[in-house]
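So, can you check what follows?
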Amino acid sequence: MYIINQNIDGGKAFDWGKTSSNYAKFRDIYPREFYQKIIDRQLCINGQSILDLGTGTGVLPRNMYKYGAKWSATDISEEQIEQAKLLSKGMNIDYYVSSTENINFPNNSFDVITACQCFWYFDHKTVMPKLYRMLKTNGKLLLLFMAWLPFEDEIAGASEKLVLKYNPNWSGAGETIHPIEVPDDYKENFDLIYHEEFPLKVTFTRESWNGRMKACRGIGASLTEKETALWEQEHKMLLKKIAPNEFEIMHYAAIAELKIKI
């Protein structure tokens, strides 16, 4: 399903379904510390019912399943949900194909609602009342994000420049460490009770970093097959010049925890 948002990539259409197989293979990359930060907040643990929005291939519920929460998860892309189900065999996770704007779970269904790498895609005027309604008393909204740092990391910066060569209007470039922005729509019904931003190093090989970059919105989700193949060939040549066989990429992660106002 193609998505067009004038505030993202200059309105260039993108479809996560186009890159679902690469997404499943190369974007399950959050390190242990990322998940530990969530557990330290006593979120997504045994006894809690969780809804993961924009779940993609189910990275968050799959990796946190062992902590005992009951997970449901939604994504707008049917192909992403198909991959999530394949990767979740043996886990009791309920997956649904739906945009966040169209979700319709009963009132007071969830202790926590998570949104990882997807919050900025939402129509917040439509979504906020739904999240408020579906959360239980004292319910939490947990926003999560992780990105490479192109100005601190040479390999990330060079790879990002190559994305911009093929997709000049890609708006995912130029990340710096900053808090997750919470729109004013949420202030009436939610309090921001915690936020944290912290650096992370993530280990890659040339193959896995190429795959991770290829599975980003600026390449696999939006370019043609021919354009993607040309970018991939050039990126592999670039990595042979500047990267060892295995290396770390500097990232940062950000957490924002919101609680329903009583």
